[in-house]
Amino acid sequence: MHRLKISSPSTPRRAAPWLAGGLALALLWALGATYLIVFHDEVLAGFVARQAAMRDAYEVQLAELRDRLDRDGRDRAGTEAGLADRVTAALERQAELERRAAALAGLARQTPPDPTTTGTLSPRPGAGLAPVDDEPNLRSDDGAEPARALPRRSDIEVETGLIRLEARLEGLQAAQGERLAGLAARAGEEVRRLRGLIRRTGLDPGRFDAPSAGVGGPLVPLDSRVLDGAGFEAGLALARRAQTESERLRRKAAGLPLGRPIRGEALVSSPFGTRLDPFTRGLALHTGLDLKAEYGEPARATAAGRVIAAEAAGGYGNMVEIDHGNGLTTRFGHLAHIAVYPGQRVAAGDTVGSVGSTGRSTGAHLHYETRIDGVPVDPQRFLTAGATHARGGAD
Q1: Among residues 84, 194, 239, 326, which is most buried (max CB within 10 A)?
Q2: How many CA within 13 A on the CB side of residue 46?
């Protein structure tokens, strides 16, 4: 009897999953291959486009970076060039202000001191110009251009130092303008005072003026706020002219007989003008002052001059006459003794003789005269003006 052999189904069941996986992979590969075959150009174009976009983006970024670097470089170069220009301008301005300071110092030395501010108007030429510790060192030791010194400090430090220096130079320039205006005003005031002094003596100040070409124009007061550049030079020239005029008038005033002819306070026993003659008892012109003095007391020159007479002169007795220039002369009469000789130069205060009672005199005294162009004028005007001048009184 034949047995029927039935095979076991377990083997095919174990192979089925592997077969299914292989079929799936094959299917995916077939689909991918088909997709690549069908859509190959589109995929490749998309990939190339994405790469091109990325490249363009990188190039734009690189261009922006290059532009930024270029701008920074130009800005820095412009900043350094601007700082160098400002340093050069500051150095030039400082040199100009130093020159002005020296000119002002010379002007101040020649200007009479103001009694209310004595000692405040003659600083040394470089006053106010010495650099301080927080200012930049603009000048190099070897005289190099200022720009070469800039890299030694940061731009911010140099900028800060420049701002400080420029502010100081601005303040100094304003102070110099005020100083110049003050010196010019003081010289002008001295001219006015001296002219007033001359006028108080009865003289016209114009008689002392040197002939010159006609000048004129509107009065424009000197304003320290506009004393820059040409304005400063014009102001300096104005102050120097006023100073020259002041010095000239001072020399003229020094030749005026403003001093005292005898020591101490001069007491007048007989004034200038009409009086009763001590001998005739009639009206007569007294051409001078009779000053009380002790016999033998020194009679002194009241201004510098040249002796033009030293002799006995009638009613004057022993008389000395001094020429002070500009038509001014003085006479000393009734002297007991003459101490000078014709042609001799005398200074103010020099003894010309001694008080006496020679000539037409009733007793020891000094007859003192002042004459302008040979005409006797009241000496008291000169003595009063001289006393006021000595006290520094106002005109």
Answers
A1: 239
A2: 4
Instruction: Give the pLDDT of residue 36.
Output: 63
Specify the 3-state DSSP secondary structure of 270: strand
Spatial neighbors of 80 by CB under 8 A, at least 6 apart, are 147, 150, 155
* Residue appearing with tokens 């900043």: 79
Is residue 221 classed exposed, middle or buried when 0-12, 13-18 and 19+ CB atoms within 10 A define those classes?
Answer: exposed
Find the farthest-apart pair of alpha carbons in the chain and give their distance in angstroms, rounded: 217
pLDDT at 118: 40
Residue 392 burial by CB count (10 A; 0-12/13-18/19+): exposed, middle or buried?
A: exposed
Sign of CA dihedral 151, 153, 157, 161: negative
Q: Exposed/middle/buried for 381, CB within 10 Å: 0-12, 13-18, 19+?
A: middle
Cα 347 to Cα 322: distance, rounded to the nearest angstrom: 11
Q: What residues pair up with 310 in beta bridges, in sequence order?
A: 320
Residue 221: both structure tokens together: 């007061």
Give me 61's structure tokens.
């970024």
The per-residue pLDDT for 350 is 96
CA neighbours closer than 13 Å in the CB half-sphere of residue 40: 5
Give the dihedral of Cα atoms 40, 46, 49, 53; nearest 10 deg. -150
**Cα distance between residue 121 and residue 115, in whole Å:** 11
Phi, psi dihedral angles at 354 (to 5 degrees)? -125, 145
Query: Is the CB of residue 301 less than 8 Å from the CB of residue 348?
Result: yes
pLDDT exceeds 60 at position 139: no
pLDDT class of 123 with cuts at 50, 70, 90:
very low
Residues 366, 380: Cα–Cα separation, whole Å: 14
pLDDT per residue as tens digits for the range 239-291: 888 888 888 888 888 889 999 999 877 788 888 887 777 777 777 778 889 99
The label of the residue with tokens 């002002």 reads 104
